[in-house]
Amino acid sequence: MATVYTFLTVHRPAPRTMASALASALGAEAQHVDVADEDTGRTDDRNWDAPVLCTHHPVAGDLALAWDVSASDAVTSPPSEAEAASRLAVLLRTTVLYPAYGVRPSAYWAAGPDGRVARARLLEGEEVPPVLVVDAVEAPMDQLPTARGEVLAELSGEERGDEEHGEHREHEEHREHEEHGEHGEHEEHEEHGESPPTALPPRPAALASAVDGDAADRDGASWEDGHDRWELYRRAADRPPAHELLLDAVRAETDEPLASAVVVLMLERLPVTEHGRWTAALRSDVRGFAERRSGELAVLASLDRDAAVHDAESVEAWSDRLQLRVARGGATRSRRLLDLLAEHGRTKRIRRIAAASAADLRAGRDG
Description:
With 367 residues, the chain is an alpha/beta fold. Helices cover 43% and strands 15% of the residues. Strands 1, 2, 3, 4, 5, 6, 7, 8, 9 and 10 form a 10-stranded mixed β-sheet that branches. Strand 6 (96-99) and strand 7 (107-111) form a beta hairpin. Helix 6 crosses helix 7 (226-237). The model is unreliable at 156-201 (pLDDT under 50).
């Protein structure tokens, strides 16, 4: 059975260099690696019998090249995707991204040439071809200078714990010790004047009954599993009658990154006037990410009403995410704001998109 790898790299090495690095990373002979671009990869003009096949195509944005790699059974003891990515990063002196375990398409790992590995959030733009943006990383990466440094709140504890990389498992064990050690969760909540959260299963069970009806008893979900809870919360977010039960479940949720992910999901669905009670459902020390997102959405909701109060300084203070959303033109009909972003946007991409949106607005192509 073939072993499949998916990589994205900051640099675009030559095919011969790629083949040599893949051979070293996967433990194969150099002559047993066939590297071809996407167009050649659809033809017979390549060695389809090679034990290692790599098809690549260019991408835009913060990354330069996408690799699809397949290693046949002829490659004995192929490394894990994480290990192969780390080896390639060192060999090619580039940063390599590879998908993280779990259901969220934006969740990636980034392996740097210095041996550093960190969680990364990868966003794909709506352009054709799509522009890939590394929005945030959990540790500084020299070759991703525009990525924000932050804990990626949308990643659940199970996703983090299931990864094979020892450095990240150690991080989770440290976090678990802090939550359940001698100054455990119960004492911490007492210190903040709060009651310990109710045990998890009853809250998701009640929520599942509201969302799925009788089918909730037959789906076999385990509410001790964060993936199952996330899927339930995601479905509940799309059902307004279940929102109060969902809020109750968030208050009881002991996986704080998962709770934060649910709140951020709900902020996009609710009017700004309702944001406060959802962000307040999170513990104060993990509330910052959701509060920042709420602030961005408040700006978006008031753009046209308050367009005149924004100047170059306030626009420059916006996050990359907020600048990009406004630059795309759907959030405002203010040519002045788009012109400000076209001049003061944080990246060339934001400035280019804002200028195009402003031109469309002037030409009457905004509808």
